[in-house]
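Example 3.2
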Amino acid sequence: DDDDDDEAWMKDAENNPDFVRVKLEDGDLGSDDDVEEFNDMIDSLNMMEMNVPQQKGSTQKGREPRPIVFEDDNDADDIFADLVCERCYSLKHYGKIKSSEAEVSLPEFDLAESVGRVIRSRQFRRAVVLIVVDLADFDGSLPRLAIRSLLQSNDTENLSSATPSDFKLVIAANKSDLIPREATSTRLEKWVRRRIADGGLPRPSSVHIVSSHTNSGVKSLLIDLQKSVGSKGDVWVVGAQNAGKSSLINAMRKGAGLKPSNVTEAPIPGTTLDIVPIRGIVPKGCEMLDTPGVRHEHQLTARLSAEEVRMLLPKRSLKPRTYRIGEGQTIHLGGIGRIDVCSVPGATLYVTIWASDEVRCHLGKTVNADSLLATHLGKDLVPPVIRSEDDVSRIESMPALTPTDVEVNGDEWKSSSVDVCIAGLGWAGIGVRGKSQLKVWAPLGVAITTRAALIPDMAKEFCKPGFDAASRPKVVKKGKKKRKK
């Protein structure tokens, strides 16, 4: 039996490249006992290798791909890891800014000057730019201008020709937990690549569908970054404000078995103020650097208070709200968005709203839309929110809703084929066969775009005219309990 085991062991050893093979020459070890002890050690190492469970999809037998942890020699980070300034402490624990006056006086971060110049000056180092995008607000959070500034390209239509050979672009589509399960990772990845190509951006070397909340796809992203950066390079983490950069970095550290970094997470735009080095994730000789969020003036979040920004950020998987709507009808999206139907090829079309469930919707007639907004703004149509006289003056100073004519051309009634997006708010999937004219309202300067539908599915039950019951605040009625007989 021992001879059979030896033959089987030798057969596995010949087919396994990870087995330890050592050829001893006479005199390499002192005595026969040393030789026997050494060979027993090698046998035990090889047997341990054989007993490692095989992971499905692994490229090597008995090996599971996993991130590498690179220890940091700088003990100062561990000593001061729990020390934060008053601003970061307030953001992290209370979700609000310590001083609004001090926040206004902070200098703006110039990405092209601070990051682009450094990338171009490090000619012999590989530059891996990790773009973090919010899947729930893809078009609003895609930093197209930031990518152009990093490449220093004058070609605004097609940036793919300006990509340097030592420049790698990696896309991390974050917050996948907010997207319904009907949209699989493969389907989302194809859709992201198509949107990147439609925007004239460089072809990414890889696209990862991740969630910093559930850690889905984080380890795969981390392994890809460690391979892409090589032995001498830099990973620059770039993204729009509230895209989830800091949360993703902490999720990567957790995936690598490290403690969370000193990067502050908060649902407030502009949490990170300067370039922050992230240690322990990439090999020694390389750097990972978190950059401040790119401020997009075309996003709604740049015009709202901290409380209203939190209302726009979904906290759970998005639920569709589908309306059957005809000419002369309007859907209010809180007090910050509105969709008028001007013409349809048939009697009606279908509009599916994908936004945070704290955004209150209302379906009514277009002729009453202005008076309805004036009556219910900040009360039933939220956000914005009116809680004091200061809020009233702040909302009055906000830019008025401005209409944009949008033409959609769909090919299906039973599912959405075109999305109409309002940057920072969400999107509306349009189900129609033929051409339809819409008028989309948003504050002046907020970007309104169209694209191929991300999620064609509609809600199982359609919403009725009036306020959306699903988003209406629950009223708890107190009453006497019935006595048991």
